[in-house]
Known about the structure:
alpha/beta, 5-stranded parallel sheet, 4-stranded parallel sheet, binds phosphoric acid mono(formamide)ester
Amino acid sequence: MTYPRKHLLAIEGLEPPHIADLLDLAESYALLNRSGKTQRDLLKGRTLINLFFEDSTRTRTSFELAGKRLGADVINMSVSTSSVNKGETLLDTASTLNAMHCDLLVVRHGQSGAPSLLSQKVDAAVINAGDGTHEHPTQALLDALTIRRHKGRLEGLVVAICGDIAHSRVARSNMHLLTTMGSRVRVVGPPTLIPAEAARLGVEVFHDMKAGLAGADVVMMLRLQRERMSGGMVPSAREFFRFYGLDAEKLAHAKPDSIVMHPGPMNRGVEIDSAIADHPTRSVIGEQVEMGVACRMAVLDMLARGLRRNV
Ligand code: CP
């Protein structure tokens, strides 16, 4: 097993064998979870702290479940009721958690780079659970695992990532992971929502949904992140849906066996039509959530191996 780092802060910089090993390990946890068996001694005696400065349903819950399934003591720190509200800084919070001998620290923060900063101040292995518009590495891993389970590979697949690319850490992690693993990645959206760095990342840019979806194996829709916009970047939700929302007519341009993904939370009727989101054969959105637990078990397992090596 190869994983060269103490922390998981980003997908950028990981090489194909590191990603493949994490996905293989996650696949074994997906099978274990479906069999109903557990492996509760793997992280016995380890403490995992979930430190979320932004809202989350899927990521926080699945890290909690993943830690518990591997036997860790899991603490969910509620930032809204913590001393952060009394003005405690991020670094003082980190020192406090460090003094409690936390082994694995899962961090979500609105500022890009916050988990990286914390990783320099604590002894724990730090996992980025989403930082600003930078990265959301475990989301990209669970997306890749879901794709691989349906398509048998990542190499050579045409993956269209659609909507608000500019504000999406999910898109950024997916662009890094999928291009590293040999997929042909397209980003599709209005010019105001495509970041200037897209071309540097080795992806094709489309502003028309039908052209961007033509022949795609995977259609990944993203949430319109109005909370990160400075205004005037998109027309009304209704108009956005007309041009960039995924409905049956637009999906008909992708391959007939293409799968539809969304990291959640979804804005139904804005970036995706309910009939597509709930489609019994094309939508794999529920499976993405299931794979999230398996991938997070794999990441915790892999990082805990590193902690053991460093004892
Ligand atoms: N996909 C994702 O990060 O969802 P949450 O915000 O619910 O964690």
